[in-house]
Structure formats: structure tokens, C-alpha cells
Amino acid sequence: MPRPVTFAPMAKTKRSNDEVKQEVLDTAKELLRSGLVEGTAGNISGRLPDGNVVMTPSSLSYEVMQLEDLVVLDLDGNVVEGERSPTSEKALHLACMRAHDDIHGVIHSHAIFATMFAVTHQPIPCVIEEFDIYVGGEVPVAGYQLTGSDSLGDEVARWVGDRGAVLMANHGLLTVGTSATNAMKVAQLVERTAKIIWGARILGDLVPLPDSTLERFAPIYKLLRSS
């Protein structure tokens, strides 16, 4: 049985560009180990202290990816460092970071159970307390837009202002956080919860959390997001 995902508020400490790049690389490899991505699917980014964004390259397997393979872009999408092409989904990452200053990590994955909800256009309901605390509530489904398009980036960015995850219709899962590591933990929690809900619906109807519980925990996500 998988261990519950645990979180801790992140202290606002000054990190170097190199530390953020290493975190993005480490997160990419952990996503592969955890089964949230396969092959060259999915992509990860982190906001650098200098305001630029480092992200994984296009069409390179995570097993062989090294620091020198990462690509740095400015918020307008111009490559400022790196020899490879950035992920074809760069618009997702840049749109989220342009729209929300508190987002410092973005992950797009093809997590199996979450994607099952995405292809049926069903939101993942908030029926577990930790989901409200660490994701901010129900995971909605963003409207369908073509993969890799600016329109998809703009559509997805609309949904992550007050929560840590959004489903992309007929596509997959996008999570955000205060760092790439935090965005990965959100992805793990969303995927675990999607699996629980899928199984629970076989047993019977879902029982929602009381409104009083949702109201009590809602401020906690905002606090963690701003930490």
C-alpha cells in the first residue's frame, strides 16, 4: 500500500539558479520512478531566482537527461540558455508563471488515473481532507485546446490561481506549486486520490465532506501556497 503523501510549508529561502536546475532534474527522474510519466512524455519546469524559467527539453528520455540538457527561457518564451529545444508544452509552463507570481514549479504528467478523469471530462472531487488542504479543492477540467498551443496554456493558467491542479481535457494532468518538488507532491496526491475515487465508485456513491470542513481547511492551502 502506498504511503500517504506528506507536505510541509516551505520556508522562503534564497536559492541559486543551479539549485533550482538540480531540483528540476531530480524531480523529472522521480516522476519517472513513480510512474507519473513514461518515456519522454510529460514535462517539468522551475522558476529561477533571476526570473527566467528552466524546463526539461523535448524528446529526451528521463533516464539519460543531465543538467546540461535543461533549457532556460525568459517569460516570453525566448531561449536564453541551453543547446536543446525546450519541451513542446512550454506554453503551459510559461502561461502559469506569467499569470501567477506564487507559482514556482509546474508539472505536466500523464498519470493514468487522473487522465481517466481527463478523457471523460470529469473533475476529481474533493472528498478527502488532505486533498482540500494541499490541492485547494476539487480538480477541475480545463476546456480542450490543441496540445502545445498558446491557447492551451492560457486556458490552463485560468484554473490554477486558487488550486494546485487542473485536468486538461483529453490530455492529462497539470500541477503547480511553490517549487518543482512541491508540484510533484501535488501530482502524487492527485493521482492517488483519483485511484481511490475510481475504486470507491465501484463500491457505491461518494459521500462528500461537510461544508464546515471545507471552509475550515480552505485557508490552509492559501497559506501553504504563499509560504
| Spatial strand sequence of the major β-sheet | 4-3-2-1-5-8-7-6
CATH topology: L-fuculose-1-phosphate Aldolase
Mean pLDDT: 93
What is the CATH-assigned architecture?
3-Layer(aba) Sandwich
- Main β-sheet description: 8 strands, mixed
Q: Work out the count of structural domains.
A: 1
Termini Cα gap: 31 Å
The CATH superfamily is: Class II aldolase/adducin N-terminal domain
Radius of gyration: 17 Å
Class by helix and strand content?
alpha+beta
Q: How many individual helices?
A: 7
Helix and strand run: HEEEEHEHHEHEEHH
Beta-strand proportion: 5-15%
What would the principal axes of the Cα set say about the shape? globular
- Roughly what percent helix? 25-40%
Low-pLDDT runs: none
Total beta-strand segments: 8
The CATH class assignment is Alpha Beta
Walk me through this protein's architecture.
The protein is of the alpha+beta class and 227 residues long. It has helices at residues 17-33, 90-99, 112-119, 129-135, 150-157, 180-203, 211-226; strands at 43-47, 53-55, 71-73, 79-81, 105-109, 141-142, 165-168, 172-177. The chain has an eight-stranded mixed β-sheet with strand order 4-3-2-1-5-8-7-6, with helices on both faces. Helix 2 packs parallel to helix 5 (150-157), helix 3 (112-119) packs across helix 6 and helix 4 (129-135) runs parallel beside helix 7.
